[in-house]
Amino acid sequence: MMEDKTLTIKGIAIERRLLYRDVHDKLCETIDAEGLWGKYLSPERELCSLLRVSRKTLRRGLEMLEQRGIVVREASRGVFVLPKAVRASGRRLRRMAVGLSSIADGGLIAGLSSQATAQEWQPAFIDLTTPDSRRRLFEELAGGGIDGVLLVSCLDRELVAELTRNWGGAVVLADHWFEDLRVTGVTDDAEGGARQAVNHLLALGHRRIGYVEISRREYNPWRYRGYRLALEEAGIPVDERLVVPSAYSLQSSRLAAEQLLGLDNPPTAILAFDRLRAWGVWRAAELRGMAVGRDLSLVAFDRDDVPPELTAVRAEGGRLGRVAVERLTEIADGKAEPGGLVTVPTELVVGQSSGAVFPPAEANRPGQSEA
Fold first, then answer.
1. Which pairing describes strands 184-188 and 209-214: parallel, antiparallel, or unpaired?
2. Using an 8 Å Cβ cutoff, are 123 and 69 in contact?
3. Burial class of residue 144 in the structure, from the number of CB atoms within 10 Å of its CB (0-12 exposed, 13-18 middle, 19+ buried)
């Protein structure tokens, strides 16, 4: 049976005079009593109903929890309760400033939190999505007492450049890297993963392979690089008409897939940058009367739990977080120099969305007979 990852509040009577501090206290009690460390809370609407408070009051209570390093609010997945830290008795824990972007992954954060505990770091989580929170990061560094900085999924090159110019301590980027900055990056093996995906499709007989990528390739050039290299190694020229950018939405990725499938010679397979974009491709295929896995093969990048219907290049978020903390520790201890990229291996998980070229490429078009 799958472990329940939602918050349930039983027998809590909330008075009308409840303020955000009371919300903070009640959530702390429930998290501890029900062992919700390392799990997600229920959606805000359910919490508001259970606690009988407005969304504004709830969010202020959650903000207090976030400032204390108890939870992390993720824009796309909800509120994640960080694993419970174990304090080392009689020893000073080194302090780690953890900067979080809006796309920070819960599995990655859980991994870095557990590894921080194991290596005797005390993480202080800082949301980097607003100017005020960024100022807080630099104020923390200026105040002293910070031994290392770990930035999670940070795409802001100017912020990283300013940090490395003005602070001489250990810095690691988790889930991103800037090739032109002397800062260590820890990412999944995006280039190798893309090559895995394309080679899988080539082995199934596909030769027209499209790619639905992110709208700004500079944020992750490695997946495109792997896509291109795999095709070139197979002696297949890259057709840039088969590479279409997409914003992070179902609508945008569906339109990108429709552009590909509307070509005179459409692809028989598509590589999607991530799971969300894969669902957009899937929807576009369905609207054209195509069966994914038969009329069109689909592979995507994904994290942790890959659904069985999807073939995906899987990267373990928790492992990425653990490796990031390990490298930060090595740099802080003088055992590693800053700079360079550390890659975490990916795994190709074959699901139902990829299959051999059948029917033939010409019959891949809606309305085309099999005769």
1. unpaired
2. yes
3. exposed
d(CA 49, CA 52): 5
CATH 3.40.50.2300 corresponds to the domain 190-315+349-364: yes
Identical fold between 20-81 and 190-315+349-364 = no
Structure confidence at residue 102 as a pLDDT band (50, 70, 90)? confident
Structural domain boundaries in the chain? 20-81, 94-188+317-345, 190-315+349-364
Task: Inform me whether the pLDDT recorded for 194 exceeds 60.
Answer: yes
20-81 CATH: 1.10.10.10
Q: Per residue in 323-363, pLDDT tens?
A: 999 999 999 999 999 999 999 999 999 999 999 986 544 44
Angle ∠(123,125,131) on CA atoms, nearest 5 = 145
How far apart are the C-alpha atoms of 131 and 138, rounded to whole Å? 11
Number of H helices, E strands in the chain: 11, 14
Exposed / middle / buried, residue 241 (Cβ in 10 Å: 0-12, 13-18, 19+): middle
What whole-number distance in Å separates Cα of residue 217 and Cα of residue 246? Answer: 10
Q: What is the pLDDT of residues 24-46, one digit of tens each?
A: 888 888 888 888 887 888 888 88
Two tokens at 325?
Answer: 């903390």
At residue 4, the pLDDT reads 40
Write the CATH number of the domain with boundaries 94-188+317-345.
Answer: 3.40.50.2300
Helix (H) or strand (E) holding 370: none
Least confident among 142-146, 153-157, 238-242, 295-299: 142-146
Q: What is the pTM of this model?
A: 0.73
